[in-house]
Amino acid sequence: MMDVYTFVLAGFVSQATFALTLVLLAWSDRRTRGTVWLAAACILQLAAVASRSVLPPTSHLSESAGSCLLVLVFFFLYMGLRWFVLRRRLATRTGPIAVSVVMALILGIGFWNEGAALLGARAASIVLLAFTINMLLRPRIVLLRDAARAAAALLGAVVGLLSLQLLLGLPQFSDQYLRLAALDHDASMVCITLLGFSFVGMYVAETKRRLHEETRVDSLTGLRNRRAFEEAAEREVQFAAREGTPLTLLMMDLDHFKTLNDTWGHAFGDRALRAFGGVLLTVTGSSDSVARLGGEEFAILLPNRSARSALAMAERLRATVEGLHLSEGEELVRFTVSVGLSSLRRGELTLEAMLRRADRALYQAKRDGRNRVMLADTVSHPFPPARATVAELHPVPVASTATSAWREFAR
Prior knowledge:
single chain; Alpha-Beta Plaits; 2 domains; 5-stranded mixed sheet
C-alpha cells in the first residue's frame, strides 16, 4: 500500500509535470497568452507546496506565504481562463487591487492567527472561483464551449473541497478536520491533477479553433476567404429570409490589376491588395462579412442594410480607394475599384441569384468605364455567357516604360 510520503511525492511530480508542460507550450506559442497565466498558476501552486515543505511547520511565514499564494494561484487561474473564453482585457483594475488588498490582510493576520489567515484565504479563493465558473459557463468563443464547461465542472469540485475545508477549519469542527485531513489531502491532489489535464485540454481546444479559423482566412489580406464567406452568406440569407430583414451584397474588382502587376511588380500588387483590404475593414462594421474571393475580387455582405444605405457606403468606399496613394520608389501610385451591388429579393432562399445580379452589375460598371458603383436594378443588359477578364473586355496596352504604362493605367 502506498504510504503518505509516496503519495505526496507523486502529487508533487504530477504538478511539476503539468507546470513544465504549460511553460513549454507558452514558450513555443506566444500567441496563446492564456497559457502563460495558467503556467504561472501551476508554478505558484508548486511554490505554495514548497513553502510548507522547506520552511519550518511552526513558522508564521510558512503559513502566511502559503495562504497568500493560494489566493494568487486562483487569480492567475481566472486571468488565464478569461483569455481563452472571453478574449477581453479587464475593464478596470478593481480586481487586481482587491486581490492585492486581500493578500496584504492575510499576510498581516497570519502573524497573529495562522488559522484565521488560512480561513480568509480559502474564502477569498471561493469567491474568485465563483467568478471564474460564471465566466466559463458563458464563453464568448463558441468553439471552446465544451472545454470551458469541463473546466467549470472541475472548478466546481474545487469549490466544494475548499468549502468543506473552510467549514472544518472552524474551531468547533477541529477534531473532525483532523480525522479527515488525510482524505482532504488526497482529494486536493486529485483535483489539482485533473485541473492540469483541463488546462492542457483548453490549449488543445484553442489550437483546434485557431486551425479552423486559419482555414477560413485569406493569408495575404487577413480577410475571410471564399469558403468562410459562403458559410457566412448561407447563414445570413436564411436569417434575412426568415425574419424579413434586408441583406445587400457588394462585389468588387480592382481596376486594371493585371497592368498594375505588370508595371510595378507582384510585390507591389500584394501591397495594393492588403491596402484595399484595410480600406474595406475601415468602412464596414463588425456584423458585416468582408472577404477576398480570389485574385483581385472581393465581396462584402451587409446584413440589415438596404440597397440605398449600401449604395452610399459603396460610393464612400470607391472614393476612399480613389484617393489612396501607395509609394513605390519616388513614384506615388494610385488605383481604383469597380463595385456591383445587389439586394436579396422576397422569396429568395439562397445566395446564387443575388450573387449573379451583383456580378452582372460589376460587369456593367467595368463596361461603363470602371471606378464606379453600379446597382443591379439599373442594369438592363443580359448577363454575359462567361465572366470575361479585364484584358479581354478592355485591352490596355503596356508601354515599354513604367511611366507611360502608368498613364494608360490611370486613364
